[in-house]
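Hmm, how's this folded?
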Amino acid sequence: MTVIDNILAGSFGLAEWIALVAVVLLLLGIFQKGKTKEQGKMFLGIGAAGLALVFLAPGLLTGGTLSTTGGGLVTQSVVGCNVEDTTVTLSAVDEFTAVSAGTTHRYRIDNNPALTVSNAGTLTASPGDSIEILWGNESDAAYYGAVSTEVIPCSGTFTFSQDLQQNGTLTIEVFNEEGNLIDAAGENETLGVGDVVTLTANLKGQFQRGFPFGGVMIVEFNGTGATSVIDDVIVDFGGSEVPIPSFYVITLGTNSRTKAYSIPSISSNEILRGSITIDADDSNNPLDVGDPVLTFVPNDFFVDGDQGGAFSGPATEDEDDLQTFAHTTAFTVNLD
């Protein structure tokens, strides 16, 4: 039905009210009902603009097809919308290659129980419904997830799109004081009793892969007990010290001490530059005992069963202390 049909039928939405007010202003302007001639001209201008909006751009008042790529919130009025059902497609794509990404997505409409749909699959909702989407449904083994909240627009069909990043490899590099890359082939850092050194370090991503929510770097070293050889290790890639993930299992025995530091996101072959500071014990020589071990684990979203199935995160572990994404990269800082 047109705006005129709706007015004649007594059905008033946003467009109909604007049209009615515009007509009244036009009549006031035509018959010079303003206090001055200038005011009459103003009434004419406003009335004409209102009618132009209603009849030349009705989609701005009753709906349309807005793109929401990237997970933005659609804030679109459905006043006067005559669409009863909207067929919604959830489409995730690789952020770098634009190919289809993810296998299944979890969604909840207006706080109803969550359902799932395959990537590029469809669901039915109504204009004005609020839909919360957990892209990847926490179970995708290849792509990190994302969470977005959208509003269903006034349209018979609509597609929500989301860019996702695929998991990749992480290369950890630590250089000794001579500037040589520490490795397992014999290149190491020589420390004596009481030495404190700050070593240059890099975290290198993989081309067209990423860690979109960063993660946590756990450092384990021989740092407790009478025979401990290291007083402290500080990891600095621009983050801060954080709690140690509960799922981490120590590897250095009874003298082990662990700390954890937040790591920013890494996109494609980006390089994060930072440092590792090692404070040797004041009495015991580090030698080659209990070399510090760096372990990176990434953040991801998850379904929080303790919060009624809320989409939580990103974090390294879920409500049951389980790792949210199955990726681990380790590096040993060889000392001598």
About this structure: The radius of gyration is 30 Å.
